[in-house]
Amino acid sequence: MAHWLVKSEPGAWSWDDQVRDGTTFWSGVRNYQASNNLKAMKIGDRCFFYHSVSEKKIVGVVEVVKEYYPDHTDESGRFGMVDLEAVKPLVNAVSLDQVKEDPRLNHLALVKQSRLSVMPVDDASWDLICQLGGITA
Known about the structure:
Elements: E1 3-8, H1 15-21, E2 23-26, H2 32-40, E3 46-51, E4 57-70, E5 80-95, H3 96-101, H4 109-112, E6 118-120, H5 123-133
Parallel strand pairs: 1-3
Antiparallel strand pairs: 1-6, 2-5, 3-4, 4-5
């Protein structure tokens, strides 16, 4: 199982929206690197759900329940999406500042490529962020 982080502006789609709906399609990704990350996702992979822009914190965990397929919001037909299901919230949200301050996490794309909306998370970092967030991996 691989691990990922997906970003959403809480005003557009929040963790509360994800929990309310349970499962949703993750559409609107128009960056090729982020799109390639979506293509690499497999059913059962877990992702951190990150509130971007105003909050800048990891707030929950979602799971891939449908692999890459065409994004109906993309008129060009170049991009796709996956379906994600809410798994659990973090007991303690993990802020971007916490990630940046921890030398064990400063290699993450969240720090190095701050505008990337879908990114991989290595196993050791996943476990550490889960620990910081007060949940089990």
